[in-house]
Design goal:
Oligomer: single chain
Strand content: 5-15%
Strand order of the largest sheet: 1-2
Helix content: 10-25%
Radius of gyration: 14 Å
Distance between the termini: 22 Å
Length: 76
């Protein structure tokens, strides 16, 4: 598992943008404030029917060691 902090202050270890490879799960968590803006761009070849939303039972079975940390962000 990799963690990145998105932002523009690279002196604080922020990453201005992130490329997520295919077959990887991603999650965004707002650490402070009431709202955030997150954009996503997909390249040619993307089809919505190929997109998978995390399902609690299969995600927990596939990643039992991460479930406690990530379960609040997987819709039940």
């Amino acid at each position: 598992m990799s963690k990145f902090k998105l932002g523009f202050d690279v002196t604080q270890g922020h990453t201005p943008q992130l490329l997520v490879q295919k077959n990887c799960w991603k999650i965004a968590i707002l650490e402070e404030g009431e709202f955030g803006l997150l954009g996503e761009t997909v390249a040619p070849g993307f089809e919505y029917q190929d997109m998978e939303i995390a399902k609690p039972n299969s995600f927990k079975a596939s990643f039992p060691n991460l479930w406690d940390e990530l379960s609040p962000y997987v819709k039940q």
